[in-house]
Amino acid sequence: MKPFRAWVWVGKGLRALVGLVLLLVGWAGFFTFAASYADYPVVPPASEGPRWPRGAFHVHTTRSDGRATEAEVAAAAKAAGLHFVVLTDHNDFTPREPVFVDGVLLVQGVEISTAAGHLVAFGLERPLEGVHKGMDGGETQAAVARAGGVSVLAHPVQARNPWRHEEAARRAEGFELYSADTFFRNAVRHPFSRLLPAVGAWLGQRVHGVMLLVEPDEGPVTKLLELAREKPRLALCAHDAHGLPGYEEVFQSLAMYLPPREDGAALPGDARAAAEVVVEGLASGRALCAFRALGEPEGFSLEGVDAGRREAHVGDVLTVRLPPGAREHVRVEVRGAGRLRPDGVSVDLVEEGAVQVEAWVEAPGRFFGSRWRPWIVPSPIRVLARGVGR
Question: Would the keyword Transferase turn up in this protein's UniProt record (predicted)?
Answer without folding.
Answer: yes
